Amino acid sequence: FGTRILSTVQPRDADKLVTPVQRPPDPFQGKTVELPEQVVAAGDGTVTVAVNFLKGYKLNAAAPFSVRFSPGDNAIVEVSPADAVQTLYKPEFPLRFPVLLKEGKTSLTTDMIIYYCREGMENLCFIKLFRVLAPVTASRYGTSHLITIDVTIDE
Predict the structure, then answer these.
(1) How far apart are CA 148 and CA 48, in angstroms?
(2) Tens-digit pLDDT profile for residues 145-155
(3) Residue 14 — pLDDT band, cuts 50, 70, 90?
(4) Which helix (H) or strand (E) holds 149?
């Protein structure tokens, strides 16, 4: 201490003193629905999203509806960044989103957050998290340019 020399302590193998933070991926907490494979034509396409409710239930008009598209291979189902994540108020189903379809096989994951209520009891609302897995094959032999995501709130 009396030398008036300042030095930095440099421990050997300092990288072994730090434990890397490893967080497990957050498991999806909602309902997962797997759709049958959809064969579509390569080229300009559309993803339609429809949410249906049992009698006596409806979408909460005061809350946002959120949807996020995650293609397994963006080179086959290309969703523009502007359309990949949407938060909408008072959406009218079916919703339509443009995509570009190139030949190949992939899946399209669609995550949704849906706020809904009992009709006449809008002060009692529910939140439903939906993940829809849609296998998609784009082919020059496909006849439709439409990928359909259709879910029903049944509980």
Answers:
(1) 5
(2) 999 999 998 76
(3) very low
(4) strand 146-153
Burial 122-153 (b: 16+ CB within 10 A, else e): eeeeeebebbbebebbbeeebeebebebebeb
Per-residue 3-state assignment (H helix, E strand, C coil) for 56-122: CEEECCCCEEEEEEEECCCCCEECCHHHHEEEEECCCCCEEEEEEECCEEEEEEEEEEEEEEECCEE
Residue-averaged pLDDT of the chain: 86
Helix (H, G, I), strand (E, B) or coil at 23: coil
pTM for the model stands at 0.79
Handedness of CA 41, 92, 133, 151 (dihedral sign): negative
Max intra-chain CA distance, the chain:
86
